[in-house]
Specification:
The chain is an alpha/beta fold and 214 residues long. It has five helices and 14 strands. The structure holds zinc ion.
Length: 214
């Protein structure tokens, strides 16, 4: 388990194993929640980040895979937000499309606020732009903090490559299009869904477009 403070308002929680990175934004919002199968580790990580369970009032899921949203169940009173196409997975507890069985878990049906491209989500003083980012899955989104240039990327782009496109709703051509779209933004840091933070955001996006297979 590793916790890392990023700027003034973001903590990165890495529980290890197959769990996605979890980001705490401005002490009240989570971007993704991991599998939820490491509840104790998540508790300790939140403590290190100086927040308690009750302070988490909203969760934004970057996409509908179990390693990113299985942990939603640990925050029953929080409002869940996700892209329209990902919301179906959450509301129907779609264990097939979320690949819950790969992780030995299962989803519970959950209400969800449906997001679309160009929506804005708020966490206390932080404002994040929603960018629809299909390719790894049809309902993938990125979140962009214009002020700091921080991009929450989900499984779109990693330090050593990009998200796989062979799962349900995945599409290589769409992923390349998404990266072109992301290259229009002045990205400073990329906070990916797995692995390490990327410091040279925009340059890394441009390099990755060149290597993508579609
Ligand atoms: Zn994924």
């Amino acid at each position: 388990m590793k916790t890392l403070k990023i700027g003034d308002n973001i903590w990165m929680l890495s529980l290890g194993g197959v769990d996605s990175n979890i980001y705490v934004v401005d002490g009240c919002m989570l971007v993704d929640t991991g599998t939820g199968l490491r509840a104790k580790e998540l508790d300790s990580a939140l403590k290190e980040a100086g927040v308690s369970h009750d302070e988490i009032t909203s969760i934004v899921n970057t996409h509908g895979h179990f390693d990113h949203l299985g942990g939603n169940v640990l925050f029953e009173s929080a409002t869940v937000l996700a892209h329209d196409l990902c919301a179906d997975v959450i509301e129907n507890a779609d264990n097939m499309k979320s690949y819950a069985h790969w992780f030995g878990g299962s989803l519970k049906k959950r209400g969800c606020v449906r997001l679309k491209d160009k929506d804005i989500v708020r966490a206390n003083d932080t404002t994040l732009d929603v960018i629809h980012a299909p390719g790894h899955s049809d309902g993938s989104i990125c979140l962009f903090d214009k002020k700091s240039g921080v991009l929450f990327a989900g499984d779109v782009i990693f330090k050593n490559g990009y998200g796989r496109t062979d799962l349900s709703g995945g599409d290589g051509a769409k992923l390349r299009h998404t990266l072109r779209k992301l290259s229009q933004f002045e990205v400073n840091k990329i906070l990916p869904g797995h692995g390490e933070i990327i410091e040279d955001g925009s340059a890394h996006i441009r390099t990755t477009i060149d290597v993508i297979r579609a």
